[in-house]
Amino acid sequence: MPSPAPHDGPDNHAAACTMVEQLNDRQIEDVYRLMRQQWWGRRRTLDQVRTMVAHSSLTIALAEQNTGRIVGFARTLTDFVFRATIYDVMVDTEFQQRGFGRQLLDSLCSHPRLQAVSLIYLACDPDLFSFYQQWGFEVYDERAHWMIRVQQPES
Predict the structure, then answer these.
(1) What is the secondary structure of 96-152 as a DSSP string?
(2) Which residues pair with 121 in a beta bridge?
(3) Closest CA to 106 of 17, 1, 35
C-alpha cells in the first residue's frame, strides 16, 4: 500500500534532486530510513527493504544532487503489459511540501517502461485521492474488489 504522499505545494525546490533508478547500498539504507518515517513501515527491517528493492519491477528515487541521499521513493510491481501496482510512495518529512511527491508521480506515470501497461493500480488513504487524481487515478468501484490474505502481520 502506498504511503501517504505529501500534499505537495509549488514545485519550487524540486530542481535540487535528480531521479535515480538503480540504488547503491547507502541509498537503500536511505529508503529504509524513509520507510521508518511511515506509519506502515516502522517494523520493516533493513534486510527486508534490501529484498524489496531487489525484487521490485521498477523503482524511482529522488536523490539530493550534492549528497546522493535519497529523499523520495516509489516503486512498482508489474508485468509491463497488463497490470502495474504502485507501492511505497514517500517523501522525507524534511522535504515535504516542495513538489517532490509530484515529481515522483510524474516520473513514474510517464516512465517509458510503463507506457504499454493497460491498468495501473495503487491503494491510498481517502484523504490522498485528490493528490493521485492529478495523474488520472480514479476510485475503483466496479465489479472486481481487492481482497487480502494476511500471512504475516506487519505491525
Answers:
(1) TTSSHHHHHHHHHHT-GGGTT-SEEEE---GGGHHHHHTTT-----SS-------SS
(2) 85
(3) 17
pLDDT at 153: 80
As annotated, the active-site residues are: 132
Residue 55 DSSP SS3: helix
Contact status, residue 71 vs residue 104, Cβ threshold 8 Å: no
Residues 148, 52: Cα–Cα separation, whole Å: 19
Which domains are assigned to the chain?
A: 14-133 (3.40.630.30)
CA 85 remoteness from chain centre: 10
**pLDDT classification of 106: cutoffs 50, 70, 90:** very high
**Chain-centre distance for alpha carbon 133:** 15
Which residues, 6+ apart, have CB-to-CB distance to 54 below 8 Å? none
Q: What is the pTM of this model?
A: 0.84
pLDDT of 8 higher than 70: no
